[in-house]
Amino acid sequence: MRSKADHTAAIHDRRRAAVVVNTRSRRGRRHYADVLRLLRADGFDLTGIHQVTDPRLLRETLLRALSGEPDLLVVGGGDGTLSSSIRHVAGRDVALGVLPLGTTNNFARSLGLPLGLPGAIRVFTAGKVADIDLGLCGDRPFANLASFGVSVEVAGTVRPWLKRLLGRAAYPLTAMTILPGHRPFRAYITVDGRRHELLTHQLNIANGRFHGGWQIARDAGIDNHSLVAYQLGSGKRLRLVGETLVRATTGRWRSLAGGPFLTGREMLLETDPPMAADIDGEVRLRTPLVIKTIPNGVRVMVPQHFVDQ
Question: Per-residue pLDDT tens for 22-35?
């Protein structure tokens, strides 16, 4: 595999890229033609152009795009699309180019990318190749977050029209309609041989820096070789509502050292009762689960100011 410096130079000089855009989403459909126009205007030789109109065909489409052996795989979509893409880029001599076309764009925010389309594409010509950590929940690679509890119901309940109208605020508002009937659960997290117990309605284990479009903590990172586990509120619904509202309206964030966070490279999660996992927007697997980070597991294009550890 090429060094990151050589890989960066190849992308800047040869500009060989394949493009995959999730046009099933509203933003993907609206910006698809702009994506192609801007890439061509920047001199990219597009080895393949692919639209995804059915999520069941995403894997097949990504593999077809990679078969042309591009230096850069440009993927436009939300966190679910990008997380699926990472599984196929990991371990390959290709970098992922991220176009944030979702609602919360947690992965793009963790990379410090511009959220506007022209700025995100400019990173491909002015940025660099970095290798970031890859999360692994059971046998499922993920980019940003594995979550348990209220969020699983929210993922299946939030209305598309509400997301279009309110953006990322649609998620906490939907959660507050579900919460009155939601039962808390006990979670047991074993990290570095020590078992921690908590009672909560919501548990998150993050590889990235953002959840719901808000920063988890100022020193959380997607390239620090560590996962962050944290609950929202406790077993008390009122506290969860209050904390969710504060985060939604102020975007408050804390240091990992000053909040109720657990950190580590590998965690064993057990719950009572067994819980489904929401893995970057896809509800897959059930507890108990081993969740770990694979340091420097995947290559991505990032801005020059991104600190590559």
Answer: 998 878 899 999 99
